[in-house]
Each structure stands twice: as structure tokens, then as C-alpha cells.
Amino acid sequence: MGDGPYFFLSHAPAGLGAGGGDPDLWVGRLFDDLCRGVAELTALPDGTPAGFMDRGPRPGTGWSEELGRSLASCRVFVPLLSPRYFASERCGKQWYAFAQRAIRHRAATDRPADAIVPALWVPVPNRQLPLSAAQLDFDHRGLGERYATDGLYGLIKLRLLADEYQRAVHHLARHIVGAARATRVGPGRPPDARTLPSAFGAAPGPRPLRVTVAAPTLGELPAGRDRAYYGESPLDWNPYHPATRRPLALIAEDIVGSLNYRPTVASFDEEHPADGPQAPARPEILLVDRWALRDERRRARLAALDAADRPWIGVVVPWNRADPQSRAATDELAARTAAALPFRTHHGRAACRTAARGVESLGAFEELLPQVVEAAAQQYLRHAPAHPPEGRARGARPRLTGPMATPEPGRRGTAPYRPLGRAPDVEDTDDNQP
């Protein structure tokens, strides 16, 4: 950790500056002031940078190795909030990469990692905040009333507000140092920007998603099964014990939330899905314990779900290679999984097939789950019922009329538009739509 920066300033690069000037001049000044403030409040070893700021290529290009290393080793993540920031996929990926480190810290210690310290560059209305930002517990008014109403950009541009700017920077530096001392988020691997999702999602607001768990309770365990991985509820199931102290449902909830979804968690045994095809209400992730397939009733319900036409439900089958019982019964449990979930284990995306066949470590689970979520969300959009705007008859197709329209044979004046080369006896009706 000593080799990484104390904080990582994540910002949305501005457009090209007028006259060839530095478009990020003011952000650079803020960064320099924050570095001096943090250095004054700490005793950083020689050679340890106080902060890192992405001064590299413009958006749309890859990350530098230095950026990846800094993001994987910094103590505190400082997003510089603005409407432009939340529209940036690059910034969303940086936020997601650091959030995964915080999720791993919480999984290992069962303590939240409040190591994201937001800074207002330009105030953003609460209704425009993605879930990842809206759920941060941070009082911006504690840095000054003018800061909360004008943001750092408003303060730094006006000489009359120089004192307000210095006060806001000083308090922000104190928050950064306080977060670093209170939370020790362990380092991670440098992330690959090409495969990272954005923490802000593709939609403007948080979207609902269900996480369902199919696992036995302590009172339903197969004979001789180790009790250390289970609890009084299926939601207590922790297949990756002792690597993590948290139930898998809560870890999944954290990961799904970091993708700008609003998750709800439920037990598969308490759900009563209807038979046959049905319209989806939301995308869903089903976490299945292989040992649960020894119960014939639960196995039959899972097989029925697999056979139903519900591709918006992504299936993940976690298991622990460090668990001696699971390792010894690998062949039997894998065969039960393939028999109960044949469609999930043989069709769909490669990541979804891998997830359904078995995810043997917590690290692999953290990497695969976002891909399964994305696939389930896309399938949900394909199968969800559409709601056309009010005031227009369903099935009615818009037609172009006027001087550019081609008259039909035998008719005078304007007529519905017909593309050139279309046979004259083919009618433009809904029945002929591709």
C-alpha cells in the first residue's frame, strides 16, 4: 500500500480548450491544492505520492498502466461530481473498479469500507444521481454553504470566493485523511478497462433486480454436510467460508448495487413461480447451492425453472474448491447440476454457461457476476412488455403523406409512401413488417 497514492482524483476531462489551452486547468489546480493539503495532514514516506489524477489520453482511449496501478492501490477514491462526470463511461468504470475493492474488504472483514469521498465540482440534483452516488452518506454542506450551492468550480473561478475555496479544500483534505485512517481497503489487481462495466449503468436511474438464493438451512442439510457454510435461513449461505464472513447474498447485493441496480434479496423456497411462460417483472439472478440439488423437491422446482422460457433469470452456481466435502463430491454434484439445469449449462453466453456449471472461488464469482447480470438485463429488455405512448392506437403504423409520397396506381393526389422498387401489389400493412 505504501507504493500507491493516498487518493485517486476521478474526473471527467473537459473538451478541447479554447486557443489550445489546457482544458483541465482548473481541475489541475484543485488537484495540486488537495495534494498539498493531504501532505500537510499526514506523514507520508518519501516517494509516496499524495494523489493521482488522470492527465492522460482523452475519453474513449485506453488506460495507462500507471492509472491502473494507482486505481488498484490508492487508499481513498475522490470522484469529482458533475453532470459530465455521470455521463462518462470512463469515470463509471473507475468508480466500479474501486467499489469492487471496497466490496472485497467488506466481504473479508464484515465491516463497511467508507473510502469514497465525493467532491462537488458542479452541483448535481439528487434525482440525477445514480444509485452508487445517491447512497453515499456525505454532507456537502459541512464544507461550506457556498461550496454546496456553487461547487468547487464556482469557488475557484471567482477571486471574491478565494477564502471559501481554501476552506472547502482544507475540509475535503481532512475528509480524505480521515477516511484513509478509518478504513484500510486492501490493494487489488490493476483493472482492465476493456472488460469493466460502469457503476452508473446504461439507464439514467437505478433499475430493479432480484437476487434469489436456492440453498438449504441448518435443519435441511444432507447427512454429514459441514454446518459452517449455512445458517437459519437460505440467505445465510456462505459457500466461500472462511475467505469471507459475509453471506453470499449480501456480497451479490453489493456487486449488483455497484452496477446501478436496486437489488432485492429473496429465498427460492419462499417463491412460487407460475408454470409456463410469463412476462418478466425485472431481471433476476438465481444463486444455487449444489448441495441443495440432493433435495428432490427443490431439484424438481429448479429443473422446471430451467425448462421454462425465462432467459432473463441468470443462474450462478457457486462452490468452494477449498471445501474438502465439495471437492470430494465434485463429480456427483456437477452431474446433478447438469441434469437439473441442462439449458443453463449448455446454452447462452460463455460467461453464463461457466457460471451455471460452477464458480469455485470468491474472486471468480466477483468477475463473473457482472457479466451474468448484463446478460439477464438484456434478456429482460427483449422480453418485457412494451408500453406505447398514450393517444395512439396499438398496431397503427405511421405513414408519410405529401408531395414526396408515391401515388398508388389508379389514384390521384397523395398516397402512403412506398419505397422505389416495391411491387405495386404489396400493401404496407403491419402483417408485412419484418
Automatic annotation (TrEMBL):
Residues 383-434 are annotated as: Disordered. It holds the Pfam family TIR_2. Residues 52-102 form the TIR domain. InterPro entries: FxsC_C, FxsC_N, TIR_dom, Toll_tir_struct_dom_sf. This is TIR domain-containing protein.
